[in-house]
Design brief:
This protein is an alpha/beta fold and 260 residues long. It has one domain: Nitrilase/N-carbamoyl-D-aminoacid amidohydrolase, CATH 3.60.110.10. It contains five helices and 13 strands. The strands form two sheets. Strands 1, 2, 3, 4, 5, 6 and 13 form a seven-stranded mixed β-sheet that branches. It is globular and about 50 Å long.
């Protein structure tokens, strides 16, 4: 499975500019003929303009239509970062997944909201996990802060997920946490982890860390960006994961009764 990750320079609250950036980077990415393209968290409006409800209502339809159109145009699977979406129950930070025909095949609402930035005051947390199959590989998505909760990723790994996609808007001040956590989640769960972070600086002074990365189940870095706009590429080879599990199957040595 060939993966491309779009590390976008996201402009806060500027849907038109962000869609233009997405289209430009998609054209660049497709030179490598990837099977799957991953976008960052809230790629369309940034993390996040106020009032977020107004921005969600005015941007979500066009954002989803753009992802659907690009998936169909390039005949590529898209794990569409996240989009702020509205419903009768509140505003959700939602990842939509489109197949090569532009069909919506899965969605996931971010379950852990970042209380230090009061995300829980503007968004409603999701209440269920989601898995999906892309080109024969079982996949799942989590979002940004979710990566700090190993129980969540372990539950997905126990459900035989092979590739975990992680869209984020992670700040530069916690870069070491980002780099450590994404490798740890890949190693301890023996999965591929594909992480797309944003780049750039928002008007409030928040600097995004960049450093999107594609990690193999050994914790090896197949590709990593710096802190500027970039497109990453890597090939995920299922045989690597199979060999790792055959040589060191940590799941066979688990003692679940002790963990309750």
């Amino acid at each position: 499975m060939k993966i491309s990750v779009l590390q976008m320079n996201i402009r806060l609250g500027d849907l038109a500019a962000n869609i233009e950036t997405l289209r430009r980077l998609m054209e660049d990415a497709m030179q490598e003929l990837p099977d799957v393209v991953l976008l960052p968290e809230l790629w369309n409006i940034g993390f996040y303009p106020q009032p977020v409800a107004k921005h969600a209502r005015s941007s979500e339809k066009e954002s989803c239509q753009t992802l659907e159109e690009l998936a169909r145009q390039y005949h590529v699977n898209i794990v569409g970062g996240t989009i702020a979406t509205t419903s009768a129950k509140g505003i959700y930070n939602t990842c939509y997944v489109f197949n090569r025909e532009g069909e919506l095949i899965a969605s996931y609402d971010k379950t852990h909201l970042f209380s230090p930035m009061k995300e829980h005051e503007d968004f409603t947390p999701g209440s269920k996990l989601s898995t999906f199959v892309l080109d024969g590989m079982k996949c799942a998505a989590i979002v940004c802060y979710d990566v700090r909760f190993p129980e969540l990723v372990r539950k997905l790994a126990l459900d035989d997920v092979e590739v975990l996609f992680l869209p984020a808007e992670w700040p530069m001040e916690r870069l070491i946490h980002w780099q450590t956590l994404i490798r740890a989640r890949a190693i301890e769960n023996q999965i591929f982890l594909v992480a797309a972070n944003g780049a750039g600086t928002f008007p409030d002074g928040m600097v995004l860390a960049g450093h999107s990365a594609i990690i193999d189940p050994w914790g090896g870095v197949l590709a990593e960006a710096e802190d500027k706009e970039a497109v990453l590429h890597a090939n995920l080879r299922p045989i690597i994961r199979q060999q790792i599990k055959e040589s060191m199957d940590v799941f066979a040595d688990r003692r679940p009764k002790l963990y309750k």
